[in-house]
Amino acid sequence: MPVVDVDPDELRYLTGHDEKDDDELKSDLFDLGLEFEGWTEDDEFQLEFAPDRLDRLSVEGVARSLRYHYGDDRGVDIPNTNSADWTIEVEDQPDERPYVTGAIVRGLDMDEAALESLIQLQEKLHATMGRKRAKGAIGVHDLTMLKGDSVTDETGKSITYTSADPDEATFVPLDADAEMTPSEVMASHETGQTYGDLVADFDRVPAIYDAIGLFSFPPVINGRRTEVSVDSRDLFIEMTGTDQWTIDHMCNIVCYALAARGGQVEKVDVSYADDAPGEYAGKTLERPDLSVRTKTVTHDRIESILGVSLDSREIIDYAERAGLDATETESDDGVAYEVEIPPYRVDVIHPLDIIDDIGRALGFNSLEPTYPDVSTVGGRHDRSRLEDAARDALVGLGFEDLLNFHMTNEAENFERMNLPMPDDGDADTVGLADPVTIQEPYSEDYTILRTWALPSIMMVLENNTHRSYPQDLAEIGLAAGLDDSENTGVAEHRTVAAALARTDASYEDAKARLQALADAFDKDLETPPTAHPSFIGGRAAEVVLDGESVGVVGEIHPKVLVEHDLELPVAAFEFRLDALE
């Protein structure tokens, strides 16, 4: 969960509520879903909150939410923007990082608190939406230190997002006193060593030039010439990345934070060359994109989810107190509301998100608990009984029961298991299914739902090399893959996976445990030879229960062992849980 350091005095200043003491602020923040985790050495709040509300990654965003909570602000607020005077010309940029966006904010009265908040917001956005700068990276520059070229129509000024030879281009990076090439930055500069891997394999690296020369080497580091300080009044914000939507919304969040500090937002034109990679070739985008999205939610659904009766006036009022705008309309399901969502809200993707906002404005603590209208007798599902029985049998066979995350990433699920991607392999191979991919993941470690459970067990073994052996581990858990024949487009199943890590682990050991498990459920087990990339050739077999092929058993391939830093053999098996029914 993200943790943000917030100065309570800054909160009081930005909300206009000097009368609030620290305890009152903590209580009000808790109502918004922000939990007080402790104090910093500088007597600031450490606030933890759900990672979806990225607009609260700064004290300005938290203060905005409090002002709505107090009723001081209502509805969707869109900052006034001046017309574009600057253009970002995009040409010959790296194909691997084709997108850029930007904005100008003028008239800021920066102090240490404002500058520290901006830096924190920048780094928190890098770590979350930007996926450690891989998907999006932010550069903030002192506008007065930029000298723009004349744009094509000879009006306004421009800078250029392009590519550069990493061994020839030079600039003075932040925290340095001498000119360096991008290659030298990646080799010897502390920040370059941290983020240089993002572009180290590029033939030509991303670069941003003005009329004077190179001033930004995204996503690694900015130049010292345009460094922002407390004396900066006008800022140029540029963001580059692999996805236009992501960097545009990161830009919106930054612009709203600076507008809260009294800044005047000014638009920037982003002009893509005709041969630019991506879907914006030949187009000019006006940024920041402060357009408002709209979603529809029905009156009945709001009342059903919240469990209270509300009239239309109350729903519209609560929506406005949540920073939304709602207009009553009619739908096939009766009374509904067209709800406008502000540009800084990247978390609203479903009508339930709107209902959650309305519920928070109403106050979840004010809701009265009620008993359901129906009475039922609870009991275990047949699948749950089967799972418990299989788990008990595995524990009885000496396995330690595990509970791992169902989410993982493609490298762990395929590459590190010596398994090809689905397009390159046999679809009948255990674990080889088209993965369910998370569209906007907040972490590069969790981008897909796992297609099998054995990679999770191998990760546990990798993290347990400091512990004594033998280690016999098993897990019964969820696996999933894309399937057009399913109503949801996703086929889910419970899978049984187990591994024996010991000096004498062999195929025979794994099969013996598997045979005992099959006998416990009165299943006939056959193990015809098979080939599987994760297992040693000639030491792997299909798991066939009652004539149906449901899994694989064998000795883990040396490539997989080396990849997981294991220095002793591992024998394992995996099969579908429903085969034991």
Describe the fold and architecture:
With 581 residues, this protein is α+β, with helices and mostly antiparallel strands. 27% of the residues lie in helices and 28% in strands. It has 15 helices and 26 strands. The strands form 5 sheets. Strands 4, 5, 6, 7, 8, 9, 10, 11, 12, 13 and 14 form an 11-stranded mixed sheet that branches. A 7-stranded mixed sheet has the order 18-21-22-26-25-24-23, with helices on both faces. Strands 1-3-2 form a 3-stranded antiparallel sheet. The longest helix is centred in the N-terminal third of the chain and has 16 residues, at 112-127. The two termini are 39 Å apart.
Question: Notable features of this structure?
Answer:
single chain; about 575 residues; alpha+beta; 7-stranded mixed sheet
* Count of helical regions: 15
Helix content: 25-40%
Q: Care to count the β-strands?
A: 26
Instruction: Give the biggest beta sheet.
Output: 11 strands, mixed
**Average pLDDT reading:** 92
DSSP strand content: 25-35%
Summarize the structure.
The protein has 581 residues and is of the alpha+beta class. Helix content is 27%, strand content 28%. The strands form five sheets. Strands 4, 5, 6, 7, 8, 9, 10, 11, 12, 13 and 14 form an eleven-stranded mixed sheet that branches. The chain has a seven-stranded mixed sheet with strand order 18-21-22-26-25-24-23, with helices on both faces.
Outline the fold blueprint:
Blueprint: E1 3-6, H1 8-15, H2 22-31, E2 35-39, E3 45-48, H3 59-70, E4 81-90, E5 99-106, H4 112-127, E6 136-142, E7 149-150, E8 157-164, H5 182-188, H6 190-195, E9 205-209, E10 214-217, E11 221-222, E12 235-241, H7 244-259, E13 264-272, E14 284-287, E15 293-298, H8 299-306, H9 312-321, E16 325-331, E17 334-341, H10 351-362, H11 382-396, E18 400-402, E19 407-408, H12 410-413, E20 448-449, H13 454-463, E21 471-482, E22 490-501, H14 507-520, E23 525-526, E24 535-545, E25 548-556, H15 558-563, E26 570-576
Parallel strand pairs: 4-8, 4-13, 18-21
Antiparallel strand pairs: 1-3, 2-3, 5-12, 5-13, 6-12, 7-8, 8-9, 9-10, 10-11, 13-14, 15-17, 16-17, 19-20, 21-22, 22-26, 23-24, 24-25, 25-26
Helix pairs in contact: 1-3, 4-7, 8-10, 9-10
